Amino acid sequence: MSRSVLVDLELIGLRAPVRRSRPVAPGPFALLSLLVALLPIEQPAVWMGSVVACNLLPWLLGLRAHRTGVWRLSAAGLERLAPDGSVEEAYERDRIEEFTVTADDEVLTIFHKFGSTAAGTLTEMGFDPLTFYMTARRLGITTHVIDGDRSVFDEGDLPSEEDAPRALGRRAEQRLRDQEATLLAVAHEPYPAAQTAPATLDTAVAGRRRSVALGILLALLAFTMLVRSAFDGGLGLGDRVMGGLWAVVGAVAVLGARRRRLTGAPLSWAITPTELRVRHATVAEWRVRADHVAAVVVGPGTAVDPVTGRLTGRHTVATVFGHRLQVLARLPAEGLDVFQLTHALSERGYQIVTPEQGVRRPSQYGLAGLPDIFARVPGGRLVVDEDGIGWADGAGDVILRMPRERIGGMELLTVDGHAWLRMYDDDGDEFLAAPLSMLRISRTDLRESARRMRLPITDAEYDAYVNAAFHGSMTRIESALEPSPALTEPETKTLPPVQLDVPRRTRVLAYAVTATLCELVAVLGSVWLRGDLGGFWTALSWAAPTGLVLGLAGTWLYDRNRPQLRISASGISSVTRLGRTEWSVTRQALGGVGIDESEAPRLVVWSPVGRVLRRVSFPPDLAELRRACERHGLPWGPPDAGHAAAPPPEL
């Protein structure tokens, strides 16, 4: 690479834009206005002006927001530039020996001949791991990405001198290397457009304008009530309390309207074979010519939070690279359907790279992934013990072992009529797929041994066979117990779904508790404001009925759309009384339904490997739930629960 290219190569971090309407600490100032309203200020105008000033001060302080600096990585090194372009902080290139980024917290550590220093997180500096990693490597700076967080470099966490040197995992770095290799492969590869018609994607949020208008109207109502409390009669304790509360309501309404306007701001993409045009209503607008674009990386990255104006990570971002692999633009894509976005870009002639792209897996698995040691060990076979999965020789000695803490999951399946084992590591990546005949272990022995050792294993076909057999037995028993007229009815193939609600006793108790709390608040309010409202009994005479009505009405509004459990042969789901589905777990992804008493008795839904998929907050009738699960063939209890009955024959 020529020297001129290195001089021109640089990576500029994102800079949060200055927004004049951004308040500074509005919450504490709103509470301060409530305290100011309770002060014994006699003049109504001074009292109202003090309350209003407490809520206006955060917005006035926001006007003093200055433009922030920006980080730059170039041939000169890593520098932090002031808004006027001067260098505030610099790490010269000739002093840098190595960059290291921890994958979990993305802390950048700079190693030099006198030690190391932590420069900060990549997100706070405005960088993405991929762009920073590629730019640093092209500048000739040794860069590594270490699995874990910054604690791996702490002195107190280092092993002693007698211990063996500790290996640092670099799976995250390997993923970045794969993306870099893909970008290098497609940077100069022609990619014709399959469609010439423009594509438009947007994230318009319904009800945004209505929510903003409602917040503004509520703020105007709060200001009107504050003026009325100040100038309508004397400033008694009740007037001061109500005025302070209305001031807090107005401040919250304004902040809610602002947040709704910013978070619901539309993001639009206009994709054509000649240009990319992206517009975010509250951030900026970008236009990129297609002939300058070599590839687009769509995945998690750093973006500007439209509400706070700070840089945050884990947003969906489209990073546009040029033909020299320089960063042309970082386009926000949060809220867009990634499937639609990637395919719309690909169909109009843009090379797309995604972190999950990887190598396409064929429909049939081969034996290329088997370790070579399998063939070199005569009489070798797969064994399962309390330490994990191992490969033993003919004498029973384990030659190769996969520790149980590294095993992320095992899956038994059938390929072309033969039983296969698919294994995943703790990162979810597949590292082994082989037939059990090559591993010299039966399906039943592997499944039962792994479950006995509490290893995460899934055999969906076996579980489906057990559930089908159990369901068939229950159906025959119920048919034998039914009266003779029912035998003439046509036999149904599937049972109707069962919808379970909380017990009636729980519902009545919820009504009673809510009404009691509201009445308690009414009594306390009457005692506190009895001097300003004509006495205790007068205040209680209208506060008690009002509290009862509010308590019952609030509980009824929640009760009319309360979630319920729906049990069917296809799985389990949570459905509201108005018909909206909150979540659903299919039968294939379901490992068990039961009660988890580790922290508090709570209904949970497990996956086949024992991971908790859902925690149900409302308690239905457990007897009805278990009966419904058994009727529809859903497993009851944790997936690894032992059963005394012998299993059916092996599939």
Automatic annotation (TrEMBL):
The keyword Transmembrane helix applies. Keywords: Membrane, Transmembrane, Transmembrane helix. The chain crosses the membrane at residues 45-63, 212-231, 237-257, 508-529, 535-558. This is PH domain-containing protein. It comes from the Bacteria. It comes from Actinoallomurus vinaceus.
